[in-house]
Structure formats: C-alpha cells, structure tokens
Amino acid sequence: MSSILVFCRGCSKQVASSQTRDGLCLDCQVRRSVADLRDEHARLWRKRERYHSQNANVEQIGRQIARVEDRMAQRIKALVPNDREAVDYLRRELEAARGQRYTIRGL
Ligand SMILES: [Zn+2]
Prior knowledge:
The protein is mainly alpha-helical. Helices cover 64% and strands 6% of the residues. The protein has helices spanning 26-33, 35-53, 59-79, 83-103, and strands at 5-7, 14-16. Strands 1-2 form a two-stranded antiparallel ribbon. Strand 1 (5-7) and strand 2 (14-16) form a beta hairpin.
C-alpha cells in the first residue's frame, strides 16, 4: 500500500494521507466528533461535585454521565474500527473531559 505523507490541518502532525479525512488525522477527527459531548460530560461532572458537597442525591446525574460516555464511545467506534484503539481514544477523551472542569472552573 503506498501512501503519501500530509500535514494534519488540525494539529500539524505528519500523517499518511490514507488515514486522514477532510485533511484531519484520526486524533483530530475523534476530538472534533465528541467535542460537544465532552463539554456536556464536564458540565455534568461539575454538577455532580456540587450536589455531592450538598449531600444531594447524585444517582441520577451519575446515570446521565454514563449515558454521555456511552454516546462518546459510539461516536469514537464509528471512526475507529479497531476495538482496542477505540478504547484508548475513549479513555483519553474522558480524561480530557474530567480535566476540563479545572480549567473552566469559576464560570
Ligand atoms: Zn491532527
């Protein structure tokens, strides 16, 4: 299989053209496809922390968070055919979502 190297439009990384879509590498495709869900996840995560500190019932929020994670997993699976890679991507996106609450705290 011959493939030329191109620069990703999103992160400027050099990748095989066969692995790009719309000029984006797989990393950037995944990031973009779950961006809205990642924000939603971060929002729910903060909400749960707030409720938790008030000793409120956080069970329902926990279920909402699980649903958002499921939807993220589905979108990633649609882009990444390899199961193990898809799991890696999901883990990375979830870590990013959970880390996000620190960077946007105070809003
Ligand atoms: Zn990229």
